[in-house]
Amino acid sequence: MKPRSWSIIAALVLGASALPLHAQGFKPTKPVEFVVHTGPGGGADVLARFIAGAMEKEKLLPVRIYVVNKTGGGGQTAMSYLVEKKGDAHTIAPFLSLFFVVPVMAAEAKVTMKDLTPVVRLLFEPAMVVVKNDSPFKTLNDFIAAAKQNPGQRKQAAASLGGRDWMVRQLLMKNTGANWAFISFPNMGERISALLGGHVDMMFLEPQEVGEHIRAGNVRVIAQISEKRLPPFPNIPTVKEAGYDIQDVPQVRGIIAPPGISREVLAYWEDLFARFAKTPSWRKYLEDNVLVDAFLRGSELNTYVDEYSETIRGILRDGGVKVVR
To answer: Which domains does the chain have, with CATH numbers?
Structure first.
């Protein structure tokens, strides 16, 4: 064989090895489970159902993706389910800050992010401090003052211990000396109903959860949990602008998979979400819901997971919480 022929063959072999791993092997062959740790209407559920619909609209997946709700345990039920699905190439899940928090503060939590496979980081999410539209609390200062005057009497509707709403509460109480009750509800619908029914005084909501209630005039935003004022709320101060110099509590959302998946399966999901993050559907979703693009993958994502875990430990310590890991 002529030398030039060998060169051509070598080039073809090298070219094939340079293809994305998923192009050489894995492609989903059955419906994909999208495991969500909240009930219907929660932030993760809303995000997952949007992604599932947008994936179908953009024709990015050769199979359907469907949402499976595995609630309870501050995310541990969903995380444990993922561990049980070890090596399963057709299961993924959205993660959020809670998945870092609960294992750090709860000795009984059996699964950590280290036991799962990070796929991509998608976004950072601000939040709003809201009260009922006819609430006597016009500002965050009003609520804090009332909570100091009557310790434990004011109520905050929330999800579970360890979530951002819980962490911000801990930091604010430590900073101000105020004290108010933390009332946990299993799903977003019940939390909002408690607020609108006057059974609780205040709650924190992510932009995509609160938008329709603001437009309907059901709630009033009294502060923003974000580094700076967001465009839709130019006249509402951030927590720090309101005078409370607490550590910023980042809320991160991304995608994880079960442990033990192959490199080519991981590469497939990374590449799929990299393409998805550039679609018009996703860009519009970020804009409409006041979310911050924070796409990350690969070794940089693994480094971030380690660094974010340390950030969470610091926030918990500042909030007076004993960390167990």
So the answer is: 19-125+251-318 (3.40.190.150), 133-225 (3.40.190.10)
